[in-house]
Write a structure and sequence with these properties.
The complex is a heterodimer of chains A (440) and B (590). By secondary structure, chain A is α/β, with parallel strands linked by helices. In chain A, strands 9, 13, 14, 15, 16, 17, 18, 19, 20 and 21 form a 10-stranded mixed sheet that branches. A 7-stranded antiparallel sheet of chain A has the order 1-7-4-5-6-3-2, with no helix packed on it. Chain A is elongated and about 85 Å long. Chain A has 3 domains: 62 residues, Elongation Factor Tu (Ef-tu), domain 3; 206 residues, Rossmann fold (3-Layer(aba) Sandwich), CATH 3.40.50.12240; 85 residues, no CATH class. Chain A contains 12 helices and 21 strands. In chain A, helix 2 runs parallel beside helix 3, helix 6 packs across helix 7 and helix 9 packs antiparallel against helix 10. Chain B has 590 residues and is of the alpha+beta class. Chain B has 4 domains: 69 residues, Elongation Factor Tu (Ef-tu), domain 3 (Beta Barrel), CATH 2.40.30; 73 residues, OB fold (Dihydrolipoamide Acetyltransferase, E2P) (Beta Barrel), CATH 2.40.50.100; 221 residues, 3-Layer(aba) Sandwich (Rossmann fold); 127 residues, Bovine Mitochondrial F1-atpase, Atp Synthase Beta Chain, Chain D, domain 3 (Bovine Mitochondrial F1-ATPase, ATP Synthase Beta Chain, Chain D, domain3, Orthogonal Bundle), CATH 1.10.1140.10. In chain B, the strands form 5 sheets. In chain B, strands 8, 18, 19, 20, 21, 22, 23, 24 and 25 form a 9-stranded mixed sheet that branches. The model of chain B has no long low-confidence stretch (mean pLDDT 94). The chains are: A alpha/beta (440), B alpha+beta (590). At the A-B interface, strand 5, helix 6, helix 7 and helix 8 of A face strand 1, helix 3 and helix 5 of B. Strand 5 of chain A pairs antiparallel with strand 1 of chain B. The structure holds adenosine-5'-triphosphate and magnesium ion. Adenosine-5'-triphosphate (ATP) sits at the interface of chains B and A.
C-alpha cells in the first residue's frame, strides 16, 4: 500500500501482545487503519495519547522500533463494475494476478439500512433441490445458513445453489477455506462459465485467522454496491461463519475481554447480526440474499455459534447422511425456511403448502415406526407403508442430487402418496385431491 | 434538573468501541445526555458512570473516526421522549426518531428527526374549564388521533396543584400552541401546549392507585385465554429456543388482542419482522373497530443491526409511550421482542466498563433491572376515577434453549404469566408451541379473576379449566406408558385416555396463526369449544382394538378442525358439527 508524504511515521511501540501493539500517537481516529511493520492493523482502543492497534496477521516478529504508518481512514473497498469476475484477499487486494480495481472508495462495515426503506421479501429462488424448494423455499433478501458437520458436502451444495439461483452477482466470502475448497469453487464457477458474475473475497487456512474478520464486510460492501447502486439481485455466500466466530474469540481473548458462553465474546450476537442483517430486499428490485455455512461439531446446535446464528437468521438448512439410501439429504425436520410462507402456494402451485406438510407428516410417521421397530414392537400395515414411502421420498426428493422443477417435485409427491396411501390417510384438502391425485 | 447554568462541556479522552471517556469542565448528572461533535456530526450519548472529572458515556451510534479532544456538549437532561398527538401509527427508532422522516436508504449517524409534526392541525375539544383545580396528568382537553380520543394533559413534570386560568375554545391547533394557562399557588402562570417531554427511565406515576389486575385481556389465542389467561394490566413472558414461534405469537397478539393501543418494541431482532408489521398492518382490519390495525399501533424498531446502546433505550422509550397513553385512560398492550437482546446490550456495556460480572457475564443487577421494568406495567385508576392499563408481554431468547439462564430466571421472578415454548412441540408443528402444562398464569389463581370469569364467561368456567388441565396431564402420563410398554402392552382405555387428551391438544391448544378464521377465537367461541371437547371426554365409547381408537379419534379431530376453520355458527360450521355428532354416535354407549 502506498504511503502519502504528509503521513506521520512512528517508530516506538510501548507494548506488544499476541494480537495487538500500543504506542503513543495523536490525532488518530477510532477504527482507523495503520500499517505496522508492513502489516495491516486497525485502531481498537484509544486512551489519551495511547493508541492500541489490532494487527490482523498477528504480532510474531514485530520489533519495538517497528515502523507504524497511520492511513487516516477506516478499512475501505474500491467498488465499480470492475469487481466482477475477480478474486481478492481479505483486504480487498487482487490475488488473481489481475490489476488493482479502479473505483469509488467505500468504507466497509457501513451503516444499516433504514428498516422503513426495506420491502417485504417475496421473490422465490428456485434451486432445483427439492429438499430446499419443496420444503424450505428460499426467498430473495433472506439470510439462511447451512448447519452441517464438517464431513458434509456443504461447499458443493452451496456452489450448486449459487449457480442455479438466478442472481445477477454471486459474491463468495471464504473464511478459513482450505486451498482445495477455494480451488473447487474457482473451478466450478469457471466450468459453469459464470466467472463474470462472481466476485470472491477469500481467506484460506494458509492466511492468518484474524484477517477473516474483514471478509464478510468486504463481501457485503461489494454486495451493497451492486444491490443499491445497480439494483441487482446479489447472492452472498459466506463459508464458514464458525471459523469467523472463532477468529472473533481469538481477538477478544487476547484483549482480555470477559468471555461468555463457549469462550465466545459477549457481543457475538450483535457481531453476527450486523453481518446477516445486511440481507435485504429493496423496493426497486435490488436485493442481497445471504447463504452461509455454520459448521457444527458433532451436530451440536446448542453451542454458542449455531445458537446465536439461529436466533438471527431466517431459518437453517440441515444436511444429513441418510444411511437407508446412502445419500446426503436436506433433513426435513430440523431444516426451516422462515420466509417460505411468503412464496409457497403463491409464487408456486397452490397445492404446494399442503403437499409439503402432508409428505413431512408421513415422513414423521415413518420415523415413529422406525423407533417402534428398534424397540422391538410389532408394526402395523400403515407403519410398513410409511417406511417404504420414507425411503422413496428420501431418494426421489430429499437427496441433494435431485434437480427438478417445483411442479415435478409436487407430482413426484402425489405419485408417492398414490403408491402407498389412500387419500384419507394423506389428509389433503379435497379440492387438491380431486385435481392432482393420480387417476389409476 | 437545572438548565439555568451554562451547560457543561467536555473533551474526548478515551475511546473503546461505543464507550467513550469524556474529561468535563463542570457538573454532569448520571444518565445525562450529551452530544459528541465528530467533524460536525453530533453523536448522541448517555452518561453511565462518573469518576472524578471523567464521565463515562455510552454512545448510541458508531464511534468510527472519533478522535481524542473532540468536543462534547452536555444537555442537562436525561434521555427523554416527546409526548403528544401524532405518536400513533409511527415507526420510531429506539430514541424516538421518526424513521420515515430520515433521508436515504441507510441510517446516517447523527441524524435526529422530529417524532411529531409541528405544523399539523389537530381538532381540539376542551374538557377542563377555567377555575378547575388540576394536577399532573389531569385531562385538559382532547384531540382525535386516528379514531382515538387523545387526552391533552397537565405535564407530568409539574408538581403540586394548579388552577386552570384559561383554556382555548374548540378548534384546530398545532401541538406547540398554548391550549391552556394554569396558575400555581403563588399565581405564577404556566402555558400548557399539546406536547411535553419525559425521561424514559423514570416511570410516569400520574395515577391514584394500582390494584391487582382482575379483568381478562382477550387475546384470541386459545391456549392463553382458556388455559393460561393474562389479565388486563398483567405481565407475561414467552421464552423459547430459536424458531419455536415467539415472534409469530407476538404478532398474533398484536393483531388480535382486545386493546386500544399496541406498542411493539422490536428490540434487537430481525428487520424483516418489522417490515412484516408495517407492510401488513396498514392492510389488516382490527376486528373490533373495523379500522386498520396500523391505526392503533406504534412501532419502536431497534433491530439487531442498529446501534446496540440504543437497544437498551428502546424498551424504555416504548414503556414511556405506553404510560403516556395509559394516563389517558386507555388499554395499552406493549410487546417487546426480545428482552434478551436488551439484557445482552447491558452485558456488552458492563464488560467494557470492566464491572464485576455476574452469571454468564451479565451485570450483577440484572434481576433488579428486569423487575423494575416489568413493574411499570399494570392496571391503574387515574385521579379522575377512569381506568387505564399497560399489559406487557416480552419474549426471552434463552442461550442454547436452556431456561436456567440469568435472563429467563430473572424474568420468571418479575412476570406473572409464563408461556414456555417447547422445542418438541415446535418440531412436531404443534403451533403455537406453548407447553400447556409447564406454562402458567398466576392470574388464574386470583380470586378476583375467578370471580370475573364466573360473571363474564360462565359459573362452571374455572372448574372446566381445571378438568381440561387434568386431562392433559393424564394424557401425557399414558403417552409415556404406551411408549414404554408398546401399543398392545396397555389396556385399550389407556389409548382412549391418550386420544381424548389429543383432542384437546389438536382442537383447543393448536391454532393456525396463518388461517383467517382459526387465528383468532372469541371468548364466546372458546367457551363453546371447551364445552364440546369436554362433552366428548365425558362420553363413553366402545372399542375392540387400539387401532380402532386411533382411527376413530383421528376422524373426530379432523371433523373438529374443519369446524375451527369455519366461521362460528355459520352454515358450514353447523354442517360440520352435525357430521361430528354422527361420528360420535357410531361408537357412543348410550
Ligand atoms: N402459530 C404458528 N403457526 C404456524 N407456523 C408457525 C407458528 N408459530 C411459528 N411458526 C413457524 O415457525 C417459524 C419460526 O417462528 P418465529 O419466527 O416466531 O420463531 P421465534 O421463536 O421468534 O424465533 P427467533 O428466536 O429465532 O426469533 C415461523 O416462520 C413459522 O414457519
Ligand atoms: Mg423471533
Amino acid at each position: 500500500m502506498e504511503t502519502k508524504a504528509f503521513q506521520k511515521i512512528y517508530t516506538k511501540l510501548s507494548q506488544i501482545t499476541k494480537a495487538t501493539c500500543s504506542l503513543k500517537a495523536t490525532n488518530i481516529g477510532y477504527e482507523e487503519m495503520a500499517i505496522v511493520h508492513g502489516r495491516l492493523a486497525q485502531v481498537v482502543k484509544i486512551i489519551g495519547d495511547n493508541v492500541t492497534l489490532q494487527i490482523f496477521s498477528g504480532t510474531e516478529g514485530i520489533p519495538t522500533n517497528a515502523e507504524v504508518i497511520f492511513l487516516g481512514r477506516p478499512p475501505v473497498l474500491k467498488v465499480s463494475e470492475e469487481l466482477s469476475g475477480r478474486f481478492f484477499n481479505a483486504y480487498g487486494e487482487p490475488i488473481d494476478g489481475g490489476q488493482e480495481i479502479d473505483g469509488e472508495e467505500r468504507q466497509i462495515g457501513g451503516p444499516s439500512v433504514n428498516p422503513v426503506r426495506r420491502k417485504q421479501p417475496s421473490e422465490f429462488i428456485p434451486t432445483g433441490i427439492a429438499g430446499i424448494d419443496l420444503n424450505n423455499a428460499l426467498v430473495t433478501g433472506q439470510k439462511i445458513p447451512f448447519f452441517a458437520d464438517p464431513d458434509q458436502p456443504y461447499n458443493q451444495v452451496m456452489a450448486m445453489v449459487a449457480l442455479r439461483a438466478d442472481a445477477d452477482k454471486i459474491i463468495l466470502g471464504g473464511m478459513g477455506l482450505t486451498n482445495d475448497d477455494y480451488l473447487y469453487y474457482k473451478n466450478v464457477f469457471e466450468n459453469a462459465g459464470a466467472l463474470d458474475r462472481i466476485i470472491s473475497f477469500v481467506n484460506t487456512t494458509e492466511n492468518p485467522p484474524v484477517e477473516r474478520l474483514l471478509v464478510p464486510d468486504m463481501a457485503l460492501t461489494a454486495a451493497e454496491y451492486f444491490a443499491v447502486d445497480k439494483n441487482q439481485k446479489v447472492l452472498v455466500l459466506l463459508t464458514d461463519m464458525t471459523l469467523y466466530a472463532d477468529a472473533l474469540s481469538i481477538v477478544s481473548n487476547r484483549m482480555d475481554q470477559i468471555p461468555s458462553k463457549d469462550s465466545m465474546p459477549g457481543s457475538l450476537y450483535s457481531d453476527l447480526a450486523k453481518i446477516y442483517e445486511k440481507a435485504v430486499q429493496f423496493p426497486d428490485g435490488g436485493s442481497i440474499t445471504i447463504i452461509a455455512v455454520t459448521s457444527l461439531s458433532g451436530g451440536d446446535i446448542t453451542h454458542a455459534i449455531p445458537d446465536n446464528t439461529g436466533y438471527i437468521t431466517e431459518g437453517q438448512l440441515f444436511l444429513r447422511k441418510d444411511t437407508d439410501i446412502g445419500k446426503v439429504i436436506v433433513d426435513p425436520f430440523r431444516s426451516l425456511s422462515r420466509l417460505k410462507q411468503l412464496v409457497i402456494g403463491k409464487k408456486t402451485r397452490a397445492d404446494h403448502p399442503q403437499v409439503m406438510n402432508a409428505a413431512i407428516r408421513l415422513y414423521a410417521d415413518a420415523a415413529n415406526a422406525k423407533t417402534k421397530l428398534e424397540n422391538g414392537f410389532d408394526l402395523t400395515d400403515y407403519d410398513e407403508r410409511t417406511l417404504q414411502f420414507a425411503k422413496d421420498y428420501s431418494d426421489k426428493l430429499l437427496a441433494i442430487d435431485v434437480n427438478i422443477e417445483v411442479d415435478s417435485m409436487l407430482s413426484a409427491c402425489w405419485d408417492l402418496f398414490n403408491k402407498y396411501f389412500k387419500p384419507a390417510e394423506v389428509g389433503i384438502k379435497q379440492e387438491f385431491v380431486d385435481k392432482y391425485w393420480p387417476k389409476n | 434538573m437545572d438548565k439555568t447554568n451554562n451547560m457543561t462541556t467536555g473533551k474526548v479522552a478515551g475511546i473503546i468501541a461505543n464507550l467513550v471517556f469524556v474529561e468535563v469542565d463542570g457538573p454532569v448528572h448520571q444518565n445525562e445526555i450529551c452530544y459528541i461533535n465528530l467533524s460536525g456530526t453530533m453523536l448522541m450519548a448517555e452518561v453511565i458512570k462518573v469518576m472524578g472529572t471523567q464521565a463515562y458515556v455510552q454512545v448510541f451510534e458508531s464511534t468510527r473516526g472519533l478522535k481524542i479532544n473532540d468536543t462534547v456538549e452536555f444537555t442537562g437532561h436525561m434521555l427523554e421522549v416527546t409526548l403528544g398527538p401524532g405518536i400513533l401509527s409511527k415507526n420510531f427508532d429506539g430514541l424516538q426518531n421518526d424513521l420515515d422522516k430520515m433521508e436515504g436508504v441507510f441510517l446516517k449517524r447523527g441524524e435526529h428527526t422530529n417524532p411529531l409534526e409541528d405544523d399539523k392541525l389537530w381538532a381540539f375539544k376542551p374538557i377542563a374549564k377555567p377555575g378547575d383545580i388540576v394536577i399532573a396528568g389531569s385531562w385538559l382537553g382532547e384531540v382525535k388521533e386516528n379514531w382515538m380520543p387523545h387526552k391533552i394533559m397537565v405535564p407530568f413534570k409539574l408538581e403540586e396543584k394548579f388552577t386552570v386560568k384559561s383554556i382555548v375554545k374548540e378548534g384546530e391547533y398545532k401541538i406547540n400552541d398554548t391550549i391552556a394557562v394554569i396558575t400555581d399557588s403563588k399565581g405564577k402562570e404556566i402555558n400548557v401546549t399539546m406536547v411535553q417531554k419525559w425521561p424514559v427511565k423514570i416511570p410516569i406515576k400520574a395515577y391514584k392507585e394500582k390494584p391487582r389486575p382482575f379483568k381478562l385481556l382477550e387475546t384470541g389465542v386459545r391456549v392463553i385465554d382458556t388455559l393460561n389467561p393474562i389479565a388486563e394490566g398483567g405481565t407475561g413472558f414467552i421464552p423459547g429456543p430459536f424458531g419455536t414461534g415467539k415472534t409469530v405469537l407476538q404478532h398474533s397478539l398484536s393483531k388480535q388482542a382486545d386493546a386500544d393501543m399496541i406498542i411493539v418494541a422490536a428490540c434487537g431482532e430481525r428487520a424483516n419482522e418489522v417490515v412484516e408489521i408495517f407492510s401488513e398492518f396498514p392492510e389488516l382490519d382490527d376486528p373490533r373497530t373495523g379500522r386498520k390495525l396500523m391505526e392503533r399501533t406504534t412501532i419502536i424498531a431497534n433491530t439487531s443491526n442498529m446501534p446496540v446502546a440504543a437497544r437498551e433505550a428502546s424498551v424504555y422509550t416504548a414503556m414511556t409511550l405506553a404510560e403516556y397513553y395509559r394516563a389517558m385512560g386507555l388499554k395499552v398492550l406493549m410487546l417487546a421482542d426480545s428482552t434478551s437482546r436488551w439484557a445482552q446490550a447491558l452485558r456488552e456495556m458492563s464488560n467494557r466498563m470492566e464491572e464485576l460480572p455476574g452469571q454468564d457475564a451479565f451485570p450483577m443487577d440484572l434481576p433488579a433491572i428486569i423487575s423494575n421494568f416489568y413493574s411499570r406495567a399494570g392496571f391503574v385508576y387515574l385521579n379522575n376515577g377512569a381506568s387505564g392499563s399497560i399489559t406487557f408481554i416480552g419474549t426471552v431468547s434463552p442461550a442454547g434453549g436452556n431456561l436456567k439462564e440469568p435472563v429467563t430466571e430473572s424474568t420468571k421472578k418479575a412476570a406473572r404469566c409464563f408461556y414456555a415454548l417447547s422445542q418438541q412441540r415446535a418440531d412436531s408443528k404443534r403451533y403455537p408451541a406453548i407447553d400447556p402444562l409447564d406454562s402458567y398464569s398466576k392470574y388464574a389463581e386470583y380470586p378476583e379473576v375467578e370471580e370475573y370469569f364466573i360473571k363474564n364467561i360462565e359459573p362452571e368456567w374455572p372448574e372446566k379449566i381445571r378438568v381440561a388441565r387434568d386431562i392433559l396431564i393424564r394424557g401425557r402420563e399414558v403417552a409415556e406408558q404406551i411408549n414404554i410398554l408398546g401399543d398392545d402392552g396397555v389396556p385399550i382405555d389407556y389409548h382412549e385416555r391418550f386420544w381424548k387428551a389429543e383432542v384437546i391438544d389438536f382442537i383447543i391448544l393448536q391454532q393456525d396463526a396463518f388461517d383467517k378464521i382459526d387465528c383468532s377465537t372469541s371468548l364466546e367461541r372458546q367457551r363453546y369449544m371447551l364445552t364440546s371437547v369436554l362433552n366428548i371426554y365425558n362420553t363413553k365409547f366402545t372399542f375392540e382394538t387400539f387401532e380402532e381408537v386411533a382411527s376413530f379419534f383421528k376422524r373426530i379431530i379432523n371433523q373438529m378442525k374443519q369446524m375451527n376453520y369455519s366461521e362460528f355458527k355459520s352454515e358450514k360450521y353447523i354442517k360440520n358439527e352435525k357430521e361430528l355428532f354422527t361420528i360420535i354416535d357410531e361408537r357412543k354407549i348410550a
